[in-house]
Amino acid sequence: MREGSAWAWVPSVSFSAGVPYVAVMMLSTVMYKNLGISNADLAFYTAWLYLPWVVKPLWSPIVELVGTKRRWIVLLQLVCGAGLAAVALTLHASDFFRWTLLIFWLMAFASATQDIATDGFYMLGLPTQHQQAAFVGVRSTFYKLAMIAGQGGLVYLAGELIKSTGDPVHAWSMVFALMAVVFLLLCGWHQFILPRPDSDRTHNAGGALWRDFVYTFVSFFQKKDIVVTLGFLLLYRLGEAQLLKMAAPFLLDPRDKGGLGLTTSDFGLVYGTIGVCALLAGGLVGGVVVSRFGLKRALMPMVFIMHVPDLVFVYLATALPEHLTTIALCLAVEQFGYGFGFAAFLLYMVLVADGPHKTAHYAMCTGFMALGMMLPGMVSGWIQQQLGYQHFFVWACISTLPAFAMAARVRIPADFGR
């Protein structure tokens, strides 16, 4: 395939892969906070939405065995688009929390499955290593643009609609309706423009594939130092998992409840836009540092730079600054550190997955990574309500200590990453 034709679908597929994830994992938190859901319920139930990304390796063979990856992508985008429209409609119901959570669950499973199909389709639609290398940056950039558009632009739009109408239900209903229209248009575009590689076909050797699948799981848990590896994957973001769940409630809660009292529009600007841009910058700089010094030398400094900036939330919860510039700067520092340190985590998963089953083993690593975010996130709201924001953020910083302990124990080849 010519690289010129790949530009017609690689950016849009990457962007559309990010949209449902942003809706399920980020917009839902802000929306529920605007609609009066308690921090404990908000954190517990939205953290459960990580589960499809935890267990997606379990049904990945189905994507290989049934239909084509092209068909999976288009079908799942149709499901996600319908889900976005359903959220817009059910927000007006009296029991909206239950119905929207059910829809978000469906979208989460569809999005996680779309990730499987999309990763496989890239390798088929861009068959040469040169093409895959040429577009790896494009994929990452447009996925992150979906985060900025959702967590930044759409949250800002919701805030402005709340200001003008005084009705958060109507505002978020309009936002999700807009997302549904855009996403269904992307679905139609991909039905028309996605290539049809000859290698993208249904497999018939189902028994052999299933046997290989079982062996793939067994071989992952037979890796050297697997206990240390699993500990690292589960604990590296223990503090960050709790902090991230409570960041939006803290920034949005009024000052008499210990929050900063930002409007939804201000949140979309300082956290969803400036914060995400700092996150991207941190990831890029982190990648450069690892390529220069190697993961072994860079890991501990990167763990330090990732977690120490969490202290800015302790400062924010203590000082409660009023100037938006000060708040934006603090959030940018924290998000830059998060992106910087997360680059090391991603590269470590590449190291763990290396071998004859690297695609499946990397998917398993990401599953444990998601589990490490889901479990602490579930209890973060309850902990915050017991401690208050100031002491909660102190607790979140203390929770980063296991990451330092596990980073000191993992074994990394001296030249890996260079």
From TrEMBL:
Can the keyword Membrane be found in this entry's annotation?
Answer: yes
What is one GO cellular-component annotation here?
Answer: membrane
Query: Can you name one GO molecular function term for this protein?
Result: transmembrane transporter activity
Q: Where in the cell is it found?
A: Membrane
Regarding the membrane, this protein is recorded as: Multi-pass membrane protein
For this protein, the record's InterPro entries field holds: AmpG_permease/AT-1, MFS, MFS_trans_sf
Query: What keywords are assigned to this protein?
Result: Membrane, Transmembrane, Transmembrane helix, Transport
One of its Pfam families is MFS_1
Protein's UniProt keywords contain Glycosyltransferase: no
Annotated membrane-spanning segments are 7-30, 42-60, 72-93, 99-122, 142-159, 171-192, 213-236, 269-290, 302-320, 326-350, 362-383, 389-408
Q: What PANTHER family does the entry give?
A: MAJOR FACILITATOR SUPERFAMILY DOMAIN-CONTAINING PROTEIN 3, SOLUTE CARRIER FAMILY 33 ACETYL-COA TRANSPORTER -RELATED
Question: Under what name is this protein listed?
Answer: MFS transporter
